[in-house]
Amino acid sequence: METATFAAGCFWGVAAKFSQINGVIETATGYMGGHFPHPSYLDVAARITGHAEVVQLQYNRDLVSYEQLLEVFWQIHDPTSLNRQGPDRGEQYRSAIFYHNSQQEQIARKSKHQLQISGTYPRPIVTEIKPASEFYPGSGGP
Q: Which amino acids are annotated catalytic?
């Protein structure tokens, strides 16, 4: 079992998309990438924590590759939109890939670069690629 963590806007919709993929065993919504320990939904919504809403996946690498998960990640949101996805605005809705090992980092950076030079998007991709940090399970409301 492997772990992957992505931020692509409101975590409920992101989790729903990833949960449909054969090989994704479990999805958990929460927060990552900030400086505030044990944030609540209201803390994150107040934009005082620096956290992004994330989905952390447990997946079977024999059934789905990290590359395939990245393909879904790129398709389900606008990676050129800074701190915004659809009507949701704020740093908690930023686009980010939190890697769990050096192999994931290499794959993510290569994938981002290939997508950028593909011409798919007329604007630069703003997706952050950072090491995974503490994952704080979250909920979708107060």
A: 10
